[in-house]
Amino acid sequence: MKKVWKIAALMLSFALILGCFAACGETKTPTADSEHTTEGEGGTTVMTQSSRLTDGVLTVGTNAAFPPFEYLGDDGDPDGFDIALIEAIGEKLGVTVEVMDMEFDSLCTSVGNRIDVAIAGMTVDPEREKTVTFSDTYYKAIQNVLVPADDTAITDMASLEGKVIGVQQGTTGDMIADEIAGADVRRYNTFALAVEDLKNGNLDAVIIDQNPAEVFAGENEGVLKLLGAENFGFTDEYYAIACPKDDTALVASINAALAALQTDGTFDALVAEYIEK
User: Fold this and answer.
1) How far apart are CA 170 and CA 185, in angstroms?
2) Which of 10, 43, 172, 264 has its CB surrounded by the most CB atoms within 10 Å?
3) CA contacts within 13 A on the Cβ side of 73
4) Could you give the CA distance from residue 106 to residue 216 in angstroms, rounded to a whole number?
5) Contact by Cβ (8 Å): 107, 61
6) Cα distances (Å, whole numbers) of residue 103 to 15, 68, 133, 170
7) How many other CB atoms are found less than 10 A from the CB of residue 151?
8) pLDDT, tens digit, 9 for 90 and up, residues 225-240
């Protein structure tokens, strides 16, 4: 009888050992807060990856009507500084970047649903932070005002009161114009449409970010002119990548990749190629 018990005990011990090995060998599907290491482009190690990246694809929303940050290239696909930047981030993370061109005003509500993240010259703003979590900032910007080249009436914020002002819906310019007393604010899906109406005499001014304003003024020399931001009391604002509220791991991944690009010179090269050319 003792012999039988000894055999049973040995069999039980063997089963427990096998079970231990099996448990130790299990791999869990990463959650939003799981962490591991991946070898990125150029040998840079990027820590912390989100479960959103386990399929090897980062789906990115943008609004390709905001040069030089995003616009449609000659091939009809989104191009620009932001697009090149997010593609470089994708390389660091070892994933393929797929870009969707969308209306700007729908980007934040689409993050975490239709898209993983959004990059579109988007200013960090408390209202937007109710919907998304922003990455570290990557660019300092400021607002400015475009007017017809022959306009002499608009010189400061007070002179915009009662005027017809064009903005892109959901942008910082939209928020500013909404606070101007008596202003007739016309909202457009893209800044290009607002600028076209300004050229056609349907608007008195367009409130827009400095860099795209410079592009539009340069393309319409003698037709439009850019006024000084300092005359309107505009302050610096900062662009960042909009990420899902609950995905701290994805934010950490993007921040690590962004820091690596700033360290290895890639970021400065993209600034020189797209913004300072």
Assistant:
1) 12
2) 172
3) 10
4) 24
5) yes
6) 59, 17, 19, 10
7) 16
8) 999 899 999 999 999 9
